[in-house]
Design brief:
Layout (H helix, E strand, L loop, with lengths): L1 H16 L3 E2 L6 E6 L3 E8 L8 E3 L3 E5 L3 E7 L4 E6 L4 E4 L6 E7 L5 E8 L16 E6 L3 E8 L4 E5 L5 E7 L2 E4 L5 E4 L4 E4 L4 E5 L6 E8 L2
Parallel strand pairs: 1-4
Antiparallel strand pairs: 2-3, 3-10, 4-9, 5-8, 5-10, 6-7, 6-9, 11-12, 12-19, 13-18, 14-17, 14-19, 15-16, 15-18
């Protein structure tokens, strides 16, 4: 009986230890965009589902799209319950200590968040903030700046970048985006668009409701 228990404990330890994966390899974290500067992981956890234990070690921005009750647990810690709200935004450097944790959905609706990993080795040098009166600076970190973005019905906004590229993210509402090649694309909640440095994009709200989103300036 003792041998059986020891074997069972070894099996549990063996399987859970190998369940630690890099966040980009965790099955519920889908890599939907990547270049030499950022990697965007689209995370959707269904009610009752739990991620594998995964490792965050890259500076990251997180944007939440749903109001959801979730739980999380560090590899060596207790379970913690929390409630997310659409529009929650945070930045974590994961330095000097990476985070190893798992997350589960204890609600009845899908949990949706994107993890924007800043993978550029040169990111973080000093630079001036984007000058645009329609962008509301909400935070400024060593790797990125976050700007609140609101466009009223029947209004438009042009964003022009300088040395720093920008990632646009839509939280609610819809917007028509036209970039340098004059191609117009409809953006909806949960969608994003990469604006290269020294480029520009026009956002036009043709809907009846206000569009709310974020612009994340990546420091290069």
């Amino acid at each position: 009986m003792k041998l059986y228990k020891l074997l069972a404990l070894f099996y549990i330890w063996h399987t859970t230890s190998y369940a630690q994966v890099l966040v980009k390899d965790e099955p519920r974290h889908k890599n939907v965009f990547e270049n030499e500067i950022i990697r965007v992981l689209d995370v959707r956890i269904q009610p009752g589902d739990t991620t594998l234990f995964h490792i965050h070690k890259t500076p990251s921005l997180f944007v939440v799209f749903t109001n959801t009750s979730i739980g999380s647990q560090l590899w060596d810690g207790p379970a913690i319950k929390s409630d997310t709200k659409c529009g929650d935004v945070s930045y974590e450097s994961f330095f000097p200590k990476p985070r190893v944790h798992r997350v589960w959905n204890s609600d009845t609706n899908q949990f949706h968040v994107i993890d924007i990993e800043i993978i550029a080795a040169v990111a973080g040098t000093t630079s001036s903030a984007t000058k645009n009166p329609d962008l509301d600076l909400t935070f400024d970190t060593e790797k990125a700046r976050g700007y609140g973005l609101k466009i009223s019905s029947k209004k438009q906004l042009q964003i022009e970048t300088t040395r720093n590229p920008i990632l646009l993210v839509v939280l609610s509402g819809k917007i028509d985006r036209t970039d340098f090649n004059r191609k117009s694309v409809k953006m909806i909640s949960g969608s994003f668009h990469w604006v290269e440095k020294y480029s520009k994009v026009k956002l036009e709200n043709k809907e009846e409701n206000q569009m709310v989103g974020y612009a994340f300036e990546i420091k290069l």
